[in-house]
Design brief:
With about 240 residues, this protein is α/β, with parallel strands linked by helices. The chain contains 9 helices and 7 strands, in the order βαβαβαβαβααβαααβ.
Length: about 240
């Protein structure tokens, strides 16, 4: 049995590609999801990867789910914090609920998940935490004060935890995808995507989920052991950090 990897938001979008790529690379993968039972069951049937339903923004629910995953497949050695949502709206129209939902799911989840796997990684003397941030956490984006703040926070979290774990054999890195062809991006109004976003992408296309998944597989590998606290941009040249 390969190393145990957990991918949050692992049944759809970029997360699905990450789950599949890790499985193909020999890992024992568990995928988590928040609410879409139909998509999760289809994913499970198609891939054979088990799914666990809980809210990554809820510490107690996360603790219980991690305990369950651990008893089902073993201690978690690779954690991919991928789950994320958008509630795009300019700040002057943003509700407190829209702010909180994005911060909880995209940022507090990193604490909730990492806190519940870090003791086992420290005890094992080996671990990988890979946080899926976003280009919009680096450059900002109209309509995304909540999302950009959460994704910038993911990068700060990555660097701080990388310092704490470097001597324990645990690496912590972030990936900042640009616009990838997933439901999340296709929910952006077409005229906004065509007129305000795609013209700014030098490679002239949306990215593919597998292009992010390949970065994750590399960071999870033993070959990437000297890389920690880094942020890998995969955005087609949209922003060069
Ligand atoms: N830059 C500059 N101006 C913009 C703009 C932009 N990116 N987007 C909209 N505007 C302008 C409009 O042209 C319009 O201008 P006028 O009033 O002069 O006509 C004005 O802003 C609209 O302002 P409103 O207050 O009416 O905005 P709205 O309530 O219609 O909301 C929005 C607009 C929902 C934010 C919409 O623009 C939008 O969805 N933008 C895309 C946001 C985005 O890129 N999200 C990324 C989602 S994918 C993702 O997040 C994955 C990842 O990690 C990359």
């Amino acid at each position: 049995m390969g190393r145990v990897a957990v991918v949050t938001g692992g049944s759809r979008g970029i997360g699905r590609a990450i789950s599949v790529a890790l499985k193909d690379a020999g890992y024992t993968v568990a995928a988590t999801y928040a609410g879409n039972d139909e998509a999760a069951n289809t994913f499970k049937d198609e891939t054979g990867i088990p799914v666990y339903k809980f809210d990554v923004g809820d510490f107690d629910a996360t603790q219980a789910a991690i305990g369950q995953i651990k008893s089902d497949v073993g201690a978690i050695e690779v954690l991919v914090n991928n789950a994320g949502i958008t509630r795009d709206v300019p700040l002057h129209k943003m509700s407190k609920e829209q702010w909180d939902a994005v911060i909880n799911t995209n940022l507090s989840s990193l604490f909730n998940l990492s806190r519940n796997v870090i003791d086992d990684m420290r005890a094992a003397g080996w671990g990988r935490i890979i946080n899926i941030s976003s280009v919009n956490g680096q450059k900002g984006q109209f309509g995304q004060t909540n999302y950009s703040a959460s994704k910038a926070g993911d990068i700060g979290f990555t660097k701080a935890l990388a310092l704490e774990t470097a001597s324990k054999g645990i690496t912590v890195n972030a990936i900042t995808p640009g616009y990838i062809g997933t439901e999340m991006v296709l929910a952006v109004p077409k005229e906004v995507l065509d007129s305000k976003i795609l013209p700014l992408v030098p490679v002239g296309r949306l990215g593919e989920p597998e292009e992010i998944a390949r970065c994750v597989v590399f960071l999870a590998s033993d070959d990437a052991g000297f890389i920690t606290g880094s942020t890998i941009s995969a955005n087609g040249g949209l922003y060069m950090a």
